[in-house]
Hints:
By secondary structure, the chain is mostly helical. It has one domain (7-210). 74% of the residues lie in helices and 0% in strands. The chain has helices at 7-19, 23-59, 63-68, 70-97, 115-127, 130-139, 151-177, 187-210. It starts with 6 loop residues before the first helix and ends with a helix.
Amino acid sequence: MLGTHSLGVFAATVFVVNATPGVDMMLTLTRTLRHGIDGGLAAALGIVAGCVVHTLVAAFGLAALLAASGTAFAALKWAGAAYLLWLAVGMLRAASAQTVEPAAGPIERDASPSLLHLFRQGVLTNVLNPKIALFFLALLPQFIDADATDKLLAFLFLGLWFVVQGALFLAVFVLLVAPLRRWRASPAWRRGLNATGAAIFVWLAARLALVERA
Protein backbone atom coordinates (compact mmCIF):
# COMPACT_ATOMS: atom_id res chain seq x y z
CA MET A 1 0.00 0.00 0.00
CA LEU A 2 1.50 3.31 -1.12
CA GLY A 3 4.90 1.69 -1.51
CA THR A 4 4.98 0.09 1.93
CA HIS A 5 5.10 -3.52 3.11
CA SER A 6 4.64 -5.70 6.22
CA LEU A 7 2.03 -3.37 7.72
CA GLY A 8 0.97 -6.00 10.26
CA VAL A 9 4.50 -6.13 11.63
CA PHE A 10 4.62 -2.34 11.57
CA ALA A 11 1.37 -2.12 13.58
CA ALA A 12 2.71 -4.61 16.15
CA THR A 13 5.95 -2.63 16.42
CA VAL A 14 4.07 0.61 16.96
CA PHE A 15 1.99 -1.04 19.69
CA VAL A 16 5.09 -2.23 21.52
CA VAL A 17 6.62 1.24 21.25
CA ASN A 18 3.46 2.88 22.60
CA ALA A 19 3.10 0.35 25.44
CA THR A 20 6.70 0.72 26.61
CA PRO A 21 6.79 3.06 29.65
CA GLY A 22 8.56 6.31 28.90
CA VAL A 23 8.20 10.07 29.01
CA ASP A 24 5.00 10.20 26.95
CA MET A 25 3.21 7.54 28.98
CA MET A 26 4.32 9.07 32.29
CA LEU A 27 3.10 12.52 31.28
CA THR A 28 -0.25 11.12 30.16
CA LEU A 29 -0.58 9.11 33.38
CA THR A 30 0.23 11.97 35.75
CA ARG A 31 -1.96 14.49 33.90
CA THR A 32 -4.88 12.07 33.87
CA LEU A 33 -4.58 11.34 37.60
CA ARG A 34 -4.24 15.03 38.46
CA HIS A 35 -6.65 16.62 35.99
CA GLY A 36 -9.04 13.92 34.84
CA ILE A 37 -9.95 12.65 31.39
CA ASP A 38 -9.91 16.09 29.77
CA GLY A 39 -6.44 16.85 31.14
CA GLY A 40 -5.08 13.45 30.14
CA LEU A 41 -6.50 13.73 26.63
CA ALA A 42 -5.12 17.25 26.26
CA ALA A 43 -1.61 16.05 27.16
CA ALA A 44 -2.01 13.03 24.88
CA LEU A 45 -3.13 15.25 22.02
CA GLY A 46 -0.02 17.35 22.54
CA ILE A 47 2.13 14.22 22.39
CA VAL A 48 0.39 13.22 19.17
CA ALA A 49 1.05 16.67 17.74
CA GLY A 50 4.70 16.22 18.66
CA CYS A 51 4.74 12.94 16.72
CA VAL A 52 3.34 14.78 13.71
CA VAL A 53 6.26 17.20 13.98
CA HIS A 54 8.75 14.31 14.18
CA THR A 55 7.14 12.65 11.16
CA LEU A 56 7.49 15.78 9.06
CA VAL A 57 11.02 16.45 10.32
CA ALA A 58 12.14 12.92 9.52
CA ALA A 59 10.30 12.82 6.19
CA PHE A 60 12.03 15.93 4.92
CA GLY A 61 15.45 14.85 6.14
CA LEU A 62 15.95 17.25 9.03
CA ALA A 63 16.29 14.38 11.49
CA ALA A 64 19.42 13.39 9.59
CA LEU A 65 20.98 16.54 11.06
CA LEU A 66 20.55 15.10 14.55
CA ALA A 67 22.18 11.89 13.43
CA ALA A 68 25.12 13.70 11.83
CA SER A 69 25.66 16.71 14.08
CA GLY A 70 26.76 16.14 17.66
CA THR A 71 26.11 19.79 18.48
CA ALA A 72 22.52 19.76 17.22
CA PHE A 73 21.79 16.48 18.97
CA ALA A 74 23.29 17.67 22.26
CA ALA A 75 21.40 20.97 22.14
CA LEU A 76 18.04 19.26 21.70
CA LYS A 77 18.93 16.56 24.23
CA TRP A 78 19.82 19.06 26.97
CA ALA A 79 16.76 21.19 26.20
CA GLY A 80 14.57 18.11 26.61
CA ALA A 81 16.27 17.08 29.85
CA ALA A 82 15.89 20.61 31.24
CA TYR A 83 12.19 20.61 30.41
CA LEU A 84 11.65 17.28 32.16
CA LEU A 85 13.40 18.66 35.23
CA TRP A 86 11.13 21.70 35.09
CA LEU A 87 8.11 19.38 35.11
CA ALA A 88 9.61 17.51 38.07
CA VAL A 89 10.05 20.76 40.00
CA GLY A 90 6.41 21.61 39.33
CA MET A 91 5.30 18.29 40.75
CA LEU A 92 7.49 18.76 43.83
CA ARG A 93 5.94 22.19 44.37
CA ALA A 94 2.50 20.61 44.11
CA ALA A 95 3.50 17.99 46.67
CA SER A 96 4.71 20.70 49.02
CA ALA A 97 1.53 22.74 48.60
CA GLN A 98 -0.60 19.73 49.52
CA THR A 99 0.86 19.57 53.02
CA VAL A 100 -1.83 21.98 54.20
CA GLU A 101 -4.75 20.41 52.30
CA PRO A 102 -7.63 18.61 54.09
CA ALA A 103 -7.74 14.84 53.88
CA ALA A 104 -11.15 14.68 52.19
CA GLY A 105 -11.55 14.63 48.46
CA PRO A 106 -10.29 12.78 45.42
CA ILE A 107 -6.69 12.59 44.29
CA GLU A 108 -6.48 16.07 42.86
CA ARG A 109 -7.62 19.35 44.41
CA ASP A 110 -5.01 21.59 42.82
CA ALA A 111 -6.03 24.52 40.67
CA SER A 112 -6.22 22.93 37.24
CA PRO A 113 -4.17 24.46 34.43
CA SER A 114 -5.85 25.16 31.12
CA LEU A 115 -6.19 22.38 28.58
CA LEU A 116 -4.01 24.44 26.25
CA HIS A 117 -1.27 24.44 28.90
CA LEU A 118 -1.45 20.65 29.21
CA PHE A 119 -1.44 20.34 25.42
CA ARG A 120 1.73 22.44 25.24
CA GLN A 121 3.36 20.22 27.87
CA GLY A 122 2.62 17.20 25.70
CA VAL A 123 4.04 18.87 22.60
CA LEU A 124 7.24 19.98 24.33
CA THR A 125 7.99 16.68 26.08
CA ASN A 126 7.69 14.89 22.74
CA VAL A 127 9.36 17.39 20.41
CA LEU A 128 12.33 17.98 22.74
CA ASN A 129 13.27 14.31 22.70
CA PRO A 130 15.86 13.70 19.94
CA LYS A 131 15.57 9.94 20.40
CA ILE A 132 12.09 10.08 18.88
CA ALA A 133 13.33 11.92 15.79
CA LEU A 134 16.07 9.33 15.30
CA PHE A 135 13.59 6.54 15.98
CA PHE A 136 11.32 7.76 13.19
CA LEU A 137 14.29 8.06 10.86
CA ALA A 138 15.43 4.52 11.68
CA LEU A 139 12.10 2.67 11.87
CA LEU A 140 9.88 3.96 9.08
CA PRO A 141 12.24 3.36 6.12
CA GLN A 142 12.37 -0.34 7.03
CA PHE A 143 8.73 -0.66 5.92
CA ILE A 144 9.09 1.20 2.61
CA ASP A 145 9.55 -0.81 -0.58
CA ALA A 146 12.93 -0.33 -2.22
CA ASP A 147 11.20 0.21 -5.56
CA ALA A 148 8.47 2.53 -4.23
CA THR A 149 7.70 5.22 -6.79
CA ASP A 150 7.19 7.89 -4.14
CA LYS A 151 9.19 7.19 -1.01
CA LEU A 152 8.22 10.51 0.60
CA LEU A 153 4.53 9.64 0.29
CA ALA A 154 5.22 6.19 1.74
CA PHE A 155 7.12 7.75 4.66
CA LEU A 156 4.30 10.20 5.37
CA PHE A 157 1.75 7.36 5.19
CA LEU A 158 3.66 5.33 7.79
CA GLY A 159 4.10 8.42 9.93
CA LEU A 160 0.36 9.07 9.80
CA TRP A 161 -0.29 5.44 10.73
CA PHE A 162 2.06 5.79 13.71
CA VAL A 163 0.34 9.00 14.82
CA VAL A 164 -3.21 7.62 14.54
CA GLN A 165 -2.38 4.35 16.28
CA GLY A 166 -0.51 6.21 19.01
CA ALA A 167 -3.44 8.58 19.51
CA LEU A 168 -5.86 5.67 19.89
CA PHE A 169 -3.53 3.93 22.34
CA LEU A 170 -3.16 7.02 24.54
CA ALA A 171 -6.91 7.71 24.45
CA VAL A 172 -7.65 4.18 25.68
CA PHE A 173 -4.88 4.50 28.28
CA VAL A 174 -6.45 7.71 29.61
CA LEU A 175 -9.88 6.09 29.86
CA LEU A 176 -8.43 3.08 31.72
CA VAL A 177 -6.46 5.21 34.18
CA ALA A 178 -9.10 7.88 34.85
CA PRO A 179 -11.25 5.75 37.24
CA LEU A 180 -8.34 5.72 39.70
CA ARG A 181 -9.18 9.36 40.47
CA ARG A 182 -12.35 8.21 42.22
CA TRP A 183 -10.35 6.84 45.11
CA ARG A 184 -10.39 9.07 48.14
CA ALA A 185 -6.81 9.61 49.20
CA SER A 186 -5.08 11.24 52.11
CA PRO A 187 -2.83 14.30 51.62
CA ALA A 188 0.17 12.04 52.32
CA TRP A 189 -0.86 9.75 49.45
CA ARG A 190 -1.27 12.70 47.08
CA ARG A 191 2.09 14.12 48.15
CA GLY A 192 3.63 10.72 47.54
CA LEU A 193 2.05 10.56 44.08
CA ASN A 194 3.52 13.92 43.11
CA ALA A 195 6.90 13.16 44.66
CA THR A 196 7.08 9.79 42.90
CA GLY A 197 6.12 11.39 39.60
CA ALA A 198 8.78 14.05 40.11
CA ALA A 199 11.41 11.40 40.83
CA ILE A 200 10.49 9.50 37.68
CA PHE A 201 10.74 12.66 35.57
CA VAL A 202 14.16 13.36 37.09
CA TRP A 203 15.22 9.82 36.17
CA LEU A 204 13.87 10.25 32.63
CA ALA A 205 15.72 13.56 32.33
CA ALA A 206 18.96 11.89 33.44
CA ARG A 207 18.46 9.03 31.01
CA LEU A 208 17.84 11.50 28.17
CA ALA A 209 20.87 13.55 29.14
CA LEU A 210 23.09 10.46 29.05
CA VAL A 211 21.87 9.11 25.72
CA GLU A 212 24.38 9.15 22.89
CA ARG A 213 23.87 9.27 19.15
CA ALA A 214 23.77 5.85 17.52
